[in-house]
Design goal:
Blueprint (H helix, E strand, L loop, with lengths): L2 H22 L4 E3 L1 E2 L4 E7 L3 E2 L2 E5 L4 E7 L8 E4 L4 E4 L5 E6 L5 E7 L5 E7 L5 H8 L1
Parallel strand pairs: 1-5, 3-6, 5-11
Antiparallel strand pairs: 2-3, 3-4, 6-9, 7-8, 7-10, 10-11
The structure holds copper (II) ion.
């Protein structure tokens, strides 16, 4: 086989693998640590939210610690409209945001302007983490 064809086809294969990974690979997600009567997660705010996919259990008080590592006006506020959360995040500090995820479903959390976006998944107690992963991946 011509070397150039070989090189071309391997890059097509590598590129396809990359595209597949982008769309179907595991998303960066965080599952709340189950503390005593409270579930807790940490999110770093810098150019976006990391992780941007948070999984909480329904009916357990939640605390999300947002650490804002930038001074950009964009991320000054974080809002979770479905749970009436709107909090100012001082720069270079961890701000605990507490609320009760009393409804199951998929919700958005964003910066005050809606540019930074994240997804909050609230799972029913009966639905295990494994079920979620199997049905969505
Ligand atoms: Cu913004």
């Amino acid at each position: 086989m011509d070397t150039r064809i070989l090189v071309a086809s391997s890059s097509i294969i590598a590129y396809s693998a990359l595209v597949w990974w982008y769309f179907f690979g595991p998303r960066r997600r965080a599952l709340a640590a189950a503390g005593e009567g409270m579930q807790e997660l940490s999110v770093t705010v810098k150019g976006g939210y990391s992780p941007s996919l948070l999984v909480l259990r329904k009916g357990v008080p939640a605390r999300i610690n947002f650490t804002r590592n930038e001074t950009s006006d964009c991320s000054e506020f974080v809002v979770i409209p479905d749970f009436n959360v709107s909090r100012k995040l001082p720069a270079f500090e961890a701000t605990p945001v507490e609320f009760m995820p009393d409804r199951a479903g998929e919700f958005r959390f964003t910066c005050g302007m809606g540019m930074y976006q994240g997804t909050l998944i609230v799972e029913d107690e009966q639905v295990g983490v494994n079920n979620y992963e199997h049905s969505h991946h």
